[in-house]
Write a structure and sequence with these properties.
2 strands; 39% helix; mainly alpha; 8% strand; 80 residues; two-stranded antiparallel ribbon
Length: 80
């Protein structure tokens, strides 16, 4: 309806930003992190990282890069 210019300005976004971690999601490219993430703020770009990781990232005010620096990055591939 033209009331909001972007998703990041809506009440829905505010709710998602405050609660996404409870469901395992993080905002991938928050404001003022472009020097670390390589991307500007994208309020629509949420990434599933799992509830445990999302809670730690949220509680510590981290971005995904901080989490990876602290815990390392591993990808477990199951071969059957």
């Amino acid at each position: 309806n033209g009331e909001y210019g972007t998703f990041g300005e809506t009440p829905d976004y505010n709710w998602i930003e405050q609660n996404a971690y409870k469901y395992g999601f993080i905002l991938r490219f928050p404001e003022n992190t472009g020097d670390r993430t390589g991307a500007t703020n994208e309020p629509w770009h949420f990434r599933y990282v799992g509830k445990e990781a999302a809670k730690e990232i949220h509680d510590k005010g981290w971005i995904l890069e901080d989490y990876i620096e602290h815990h390392g990055f591993t990808y477990n591939l199951r071969l059957n």
